[in-house]
Design brief:
Layout (H helix, E strand, L loop, with lengths): L2 H23 L2 H4 L6 H45 L9 E3 L6 E3 L5 E2 L6 E2 L6 E2 L5 E3 L4 E3 L6 E2 L6 E3 L4 E3 L4
Antiparallel strand pairs: 1-2, 2-3, 3-4, 5-6, 6-7, 7-8, 8-9, 9-10
Length: about 170
């Protein structure tokens, strides 16, 4: 086909499309949309609503986590109180000099935190496993070296130099 015929057919097709659009939708001035800020306004409102919902959601989750932490702390405290080995009775009296409890029947000093019997001369207690414990620190005490060992981590410290003692393997 010749190029001029192709151009004529395209021009006719375009002219028919324009006439059909004018018949269906009206003249060209009425079909042009006026640029309004309505879409921007609606988009801004939707974006603000999404941000508000996000803030409320984050606040709710943080409050829920804080409440769970508080409940766990209370449960831990209640469990520690329930696990206290000292029964509440009238035979244990607080010794004002040491802060320990004195058993009125045996005269022994008892650590109120652990329930272990405390030696009056040294101020140290012995746990059921045979470890010597300093009740002020709740750390194991080695009577031969004078070193303290953390029961949770196993780190041994020399209290005079305040240095960690490396154990020989």
């Amino acid at each position: 086909m010749i190029e001029s015929d192709r151009v004529l057919i395209e021009t006719t097709r375009t002219h028919r499309d324009r006439l059909a659009s004018a018949f269906a939708f009206g003249d060209l001035e009425r079909r042009r949309r006026v640029n309004t800020n309505l879409r921007r306004f609606i988009g801004s409102v939707v974006l603000a609503a999404v941000i508000c919902v996000g803030c409320v959601g984050v606040s709710f989750v943080l409050d829920l986590l804080q409440g769970q932490r508080e409940e766990e702390a209370l449960a831990s405290f209640r469990a520690a109180q329930a696990a206290n080995p000292i029964p509440p009775d009238d035979r244990l009296v607080e010794d004002e000099e040491t802060g320990f409890l004195r058993d009125t029947q045996t005269g022994e000093l008892i650590d109120p935190q652990t329930g272990f019997v405390v030696d009056e001369d040294t101020g140290l207690a012995r746990d059921p496993d045979g470890n010597t414990i300093d009740p002020r620190l709740d750390w194991f005490y080695d009577t031969s070296t004078g070193f303290y060992t953390d029961p949770e981590t196993g780190v041994t410290i020399d209290p005079t130099t305040m240095q960690v003692v490396e154990e020989e393997r």
